[in-house]
Amino acid sequence: MDHLDALRATVGAAQVLTGADALPWETDWRERYRGRALAVVRPGTTDEVAAVVRLCAQAGLPVIPQGGNTGLCGGATPDDSGRAVILSLQRLNRVRGIDTDNDTMEVEAGCVLQSVQQAAREAGRLFPLSLAAEGSCTIGGNLATNAGGTQVLRYGNMRELTLGLEVVTAQGDVWHGLRGLRKDNTGYDLRDLFIGSEGTLGVITAATLKLHPLPVARCTALLALDSIEAGIAMLGRARAGLGASLTGFELMAGNCLQDVVRCFPQQRLPFEGPSADRPWYALLELSDSESEAHARERFEVVVGEAIEAGVVLDAVIAESMAQSHALWHLRESIPLAEKESGKSIKHDVSIPVSRMAEFVLGTNAALQAAFPGIRHVIFGHLGDGNLHYNVARGPDWAEGRLLACQDAVYELVHDRVHAVGGSISAEHGVGQLKRDVLPRYKDPVEMALMHRIKAALDPQGIMNPGKVLAG
């Protein structure tokens, strides 16, 4: 029996896709990475995942775990050898259970994030992970990259939102680690090892997630600012005035929102006059457990004092949930507007908030000196220091010319990130995009330990080869 016949016998012929049928899985969302797979295999249970991995281990076939395929660093696409098996987990999409007394839910890796949010909401709870791709990304992908999103400031990344995992190892064994415990000091923390490993150590098939109480009220405001320093000052005021109720603080360069309005005319900035053309904007959100009136009062005091102090130039506070959604939709449409405008050079970096202005202003100047006329497309989660510092073509730049400069742009930006004590990957992962430059910025001992862990858990090197670690 050849490899394809063995896979068909394991999961059913209809769940093994080859040739033209496999094409959508062989290309990443940004259409930057294209590979060729032996097959796309779509198991429906954890046992089937384990059986597929065992077959691949016996045959020495690479395994490429894939969720919603919304990643931005090429972490879920094969090489062009035609030997790899893409392991699509989209059929593992059940919510196995919700425990409201323990505030946990057990979900399979193929569950779409939005569906998990909805299931939690229907149970009277909140699962707070929120990001632009939530309608198509899956929990498995969120775990593989330790996703963050817009509410990390209050609730944390996926590591903080996960209590237990079910994982298929590189040998095809199943680790049953779906514990719903907040405290468990019984040895090494394997959970945190697999989270963020991008499928290079094993396949996450299910998770026990933390739930939170649904907020009684939310307040959202869009703030107009004249500088990035004003944004940082406003973040400090919001933290001091709102405390743990501060849920999100997003920073956006003005041209980002102008691009959204241009690409999607049905959306509009809720400002008129000078405030509609400011260099920076911030999106601020509070979640309150007391009452709508209490939330609104606290919110208006903090925003009002910032306006009086000249930190904020203008503000629009949402008067309804629909208006709040519209403000967030502006922020969430920035990546879509970027894609509509053509390819860009993307950076997902983490910077100490105290050095954010230094980084942005200095890097902008350095890029303009080296590549005059390029555009800076800057937005991100200022509250946790995560910036999407992207570089797009200016009016006099052809797309091909910009992409020809990408290695030099990456090096300049990443060197400056490193110089201010930051990280070259905050929430998108490493994948193929940053694999080869990772040793330039990581401690040599740290890199050696990572290679040892990979060799110990995946001695054949079949789990998502070519991602995170080179060689």
UniProtKB/TrEMBL annotation:
Cofactor(s) it depends on: FAD
Pfam families registered for this protein in UniProt: FAD-oxidase_C, FAD_binding_4
Any one biological process term the GO annotation gives: respiratory electron transport chain
Keywords for this protein: FAD, Flavoprotein, Oxidoreductase
Residue ranges of domain FAD-binding PCMH-type in the record: 33-214
Its EC number(s): 1.1.99.2
UniProt similarity note: Belongs to the FAD-binding oxidoreductase/transferase type 4 family.
Protein name, as recorded: D-2-hydroxyglutarate dehydrogenase
